[in-house]
Amino acid sequence: MQWSLKINGKRYNNQNLADINDSEIRNFLEEWGNDLPTISVRTSGSTGTPKLISLLKTDMIASAELTGEYFNLQKGQSALLCLPVKYIAGKMMVIRAIVSQLDLISVTPSSNPLITCESKINFAAMTPMQVKMVLNKNPEKLDLINQLIIGGALVNNVLKARLQNVKSDCYSTYGMTETITHIAIKKLNKKNKSDTFKALPNVTFELNNNDCLVVNTPHLQTSTVTTNDVALLVDSQRFKWLGRFDNTINSGGIKLQPESLEFKIIILTKEKRFFFSSLPDEVLGEKLILVIESKGVIPNFEARLSELLDPFEMPKTIYYMDSFIETENGKVNRKETVLQAYNL
Length: 344
Prior knowledge:
Blueprint: E1 4-7, E2 10-13, H1 23-32, E3 38-42, E4 52-56, H2 57-71, E5 78-81, H3 88-99, E6 103-106, E7 121-126, H4 128-137, E8 145-150, H5 157-162, E9 169-176, E10 181-187, E11 197-199, E12 204-207, E13 212-216, E14 224-235, E15 238-244, E16 249-251, E17 254-256, H6 258-265, E18 274-281, E19 285-293, H7 301-308, E20 317-321, H8 334-342
Parallel strand pairs: 1-6, 5-6, 5-7, 7-8, 8-9, 19-20
Antiparallel strand pairs: 1-2, 3-4, 9-10, 10-11, 11-15, 12-13, 13-14, 14-15, 16-17, 18-19
Helix pairs in contact: 2-3
């Protein structure tokens, strides 16, 4: 497959591929340019065991075209690559730049990726952690970006509130490796901001018997993807995300969605990482627990917690851990962290 891409001011193609200094980008573009129809991608492991899957190059191109159409990306505009290219999010930024003929600004992936950026950027993708770090360290840098998509994890209400005074148009994305990253967008600030995800062009949604989202993707060869995400469907193109079906807790017959509870108490954690989970219980079947990454007990935390949660939403046990167990790409491994907390 022939390709051409401008990276940090220099034009590359199949012929001068070896001149690219970044080995991750070079290795990916070498795979992109070979005669095979697929690319091998490792899933993040945030919702299960990481696995290696194959994605059709034609599907990746179709996904990039859809993003280009939605955000009106034009030839010669700039796109920031600040995510590892070994994962799908970084790979797709490279493919979007190729497909939409964007000038790629590549920086070393870090928690504060804009620290060396000085010029305007038309389009960028970052994680919530990166956005939070930029806001903490050099918030004026975020205004360099025209359109910013934030993915890889949920954008909580605290971060969303901080984005209201940012000049960039900020969006939360919904998607996964199997859908070739995002297939729905939620505007977080300024005009048309919303609490619901809206489908990209031609994508539609429905629910299965478990109230999990089914994504219809006519632009991909696999035209239907069934997820484990519990959702509230507004219509065929809009939904509210409630949480993961495999995280649902049945405590004494009451179904609790950890992610929804986490939104309720984010204001109490003082930017500490935390999550709700469960442990087996002889009476309730499952008992609700809360795990917090903290060096010690937070004063008056339970009393303040009771002001935000209904009585049946209160955790039976709160575990404080010095540090969480993470997946390879830095996401919290809930299952392993709970096992370690229980055995403390």
